[in-house]
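Query structure, 369 tokens:
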């Protein structure tokens, strides 16, 4: 069988790069260096960065495509080189240079109250006098506009220096941007991962955030390329993981923790938050009913040797106020308000602790009041 470069190229059009959805030939990833020696084939694939998370899978898919669509006798395994366009940076790109601390709020699964925790944490930090921004990065289920009573906001472009930047909505002392401002609230967002990631990067880099002490990111539940994109483009101070105490939620929380602590991501875990820790009815404020299990997140934190940052009870006012767009943390003296203020203090203390116990070159930043 005689091999020609066009046969190789045709086979490689069957391979798609997960980050963009394009085939690797169309995406310009195939370098013009296909070498054929009898049945031996070798060439290089071009990637944006040397730490691209899809390198191994794309190279494997390219090998499989050639063996499947041309001939299983071709000697190609181990002959495909991955070449980077640019060297890896020691620090992610500084898209928000005037932000001191970036905190990601994540969960292994949906329905554990991650967005509610993020909203009340932002309000608590603002109530303590800090400058706070919140990015609703939950592309497929944006809920922060409703929680901040700004569903009808229509962010405008403002001239800042030589650039036109998106002016965030603002309420309760928190600056907010969400994809929910730019899509019909009744329609599902049917975007591929690359489109969602690019939209988020634009909200971050083109948002007129100004000077912030804390920039919170309400991440989508689970693990996805959106998470990878954000951690690779932002110098994230740390992540807090939200989970309920039940075993099903804890199993997914473990996966989220595993992703953030993996070599590819390597984002510090500031701690865990146990949401819906117990139910307390309004008429029996001293009673606690552990309807989702007792202290499951606390045990997980002890097992993984990470801090338990807070335990938030199930109280009807948390849900009611979230629906009304008036987060319970606005009332600092309520039981729920105190729980979220305590959570905010614990996160601040955890960042401060890290600054004192890790090398100066790796320290994160905290604004002193």
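Result returned for the query:
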């Amino acid at each position: 069988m005689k091999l020609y470069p066009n046969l190789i190229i045709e086979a490689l059009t069957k391979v798609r790069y997960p980050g963009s959805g394009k085939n690797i030939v169309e995406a310009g990833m195939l370098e013009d260096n296909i070498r054929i020696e009898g049945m031996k084939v070798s060439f290089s694939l071009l990637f944006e960065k040397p730490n691209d998370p899809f390198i191994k899978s794309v190279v494997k898919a390219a090998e499989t495509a050639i063996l499947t669509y041309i001939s299983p006798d071709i000697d190609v395994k181990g002959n495909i080189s991955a070449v980077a366009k640019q060297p890896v940076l020691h620090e992610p790109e500084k898209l928000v240079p005037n932000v001191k601390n970036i905190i990601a709020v994540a969960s292994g699964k949906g329905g554990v109250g991650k967005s509610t925790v993020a909203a009340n944490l932002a309000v608590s930090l603002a109530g303590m006098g800090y400058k706070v921004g919140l990015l609703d990065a939950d592309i497929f289920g944006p809920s922060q506009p409703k929680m901040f009573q700004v569903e009808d906001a229509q962010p405008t472009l403002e001239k800042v220096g030589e650039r036109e930047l998106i002016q965030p909505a603002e309420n309760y002392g928190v600056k907010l941007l969400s994809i929910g401002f730019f899509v019909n609230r009744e329609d599902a967002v049917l975007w591929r991962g690359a489109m969602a990631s690019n939209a988020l990067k634009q909200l971050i880099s083109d948002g007129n955030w100004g000077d912030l002490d804390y920039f919170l990111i309400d991440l989508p539940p689970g693990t996805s390329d959106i998470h990878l994109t954000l951690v690779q483009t932002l110098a994230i101070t740390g992540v807090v993981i939200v989970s309920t105490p039940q075993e099903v939620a804890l199993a997914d929380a473990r996966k989220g923790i595993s992703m953030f602590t993996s070599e590819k991501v390597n984002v510090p875990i500031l701690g865990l938050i146990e949401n819906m820790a117990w139910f307390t009815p309004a008429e029996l404020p001293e009673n606690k009913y552990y309807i989702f299990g007792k202290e499951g997140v606390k045990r997980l934190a002890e097992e993984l040797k990470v801090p338990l940052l807070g335990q938030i009870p199930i109280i009807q006012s948390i849900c009611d106020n979230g629906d009304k767009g008036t987060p319970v943390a606005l009332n600092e003296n309520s039981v729920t308000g105190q729980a979220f203020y305590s959570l905010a203090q614990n996160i601040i203390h955890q960042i401060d602790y890290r600054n004192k116990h890790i090398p100066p070159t790796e320290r994160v930043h905290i604004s002193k009041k």
